[in-house]
Design goal:
Layout lengths: L4 E5 L2 H18 L4 E4 L6 H12 L9 E4 L1 E3 L10 H8 L11 E2 L8 H14 L5 E4 L21 E4 L2 H7 L12 E4 L2 H5 L3 E6 L5 H9 L17 E6 L7
Parallel strand pairs: 1-10, 2-3, 2-6, 3-5, 6-9, 9-10
Antiparallel strand pairs: 4-8, 7-8
Bound molecules: fructose -6-phosphate.
Fructose -6-phosphate binds next to loops.
Length: 244
Amino acid sequence: MNQIQIFSAPNAAAVGKIAAEMIVAAVNAKRDAVLGLATGSTPLPLYGELVKAYRAGEVSFRGIRTVNLDEYVGLSETHEQSYRYFMNENLFKQIDIDLSNTFVPNGTAADSAAACDAYEARIEALGGIDLQLLGIGLNGHIGFNEPADTFSKRTHVVELTESTREANKRFFASIDNVPTQAITMGIGTIFAAKKLVLVCTGEKKAEILKRSLTGDVDPRVPASILQFHPDVTVFADEAALKLI
Ligand code: F6R
């Protein structure tokens, strides 16, 4: 089992700050790095800090390439709940990244399976992921890799579980508007990244964080695969870490 580095901070804002320091250092060390990015509430303070660091002249994203973990099937990039829209608004438009170097799975492709293969080919053409940022779902999902009997391998289409749709309905008019499918990098895709950085905040995540980092490595807790990766850093607040 590999040693997972865990950094604790008092609250979500402070988690964003210390996680951003690591990302800024990674970008400054490799100007054309490939960053794997995540959406959701947890990385928002971190993205805010990256924007601040850019505005303060501490970092430039001009040569950086990004690949996002996932996208809802059926939502176009102008849909306010699409992950492409989220990334454009919360990060890309506010920094000096070249938008043509940012990639998110195509949720509106006529052939979703072909879009998944194209996404894998894209990641390979970029030379693989240097640093993959992750959040964690209440059921232990990473990306949209839901609990399953086996670990998924590569980018694929998933049926979202009711618990995930329920957790995400806060962003939609009602649960009926939450898409039922998504395209997600597979566990194998995520695992192939050189470095994994998990951000996790809030007491609600304490139980699943504990199971993921200290329980059995089991596809029914997808994030537990992190225990086998050689380079994992976790940034979490005290509430999320209270059981560890
Ligand atoms: C989003 C993603 C998801 C989220 C997870 C936690 O791109 O891959 O796995 O990281 O659902 O979401 P929040 O941060 O909203 O609790």
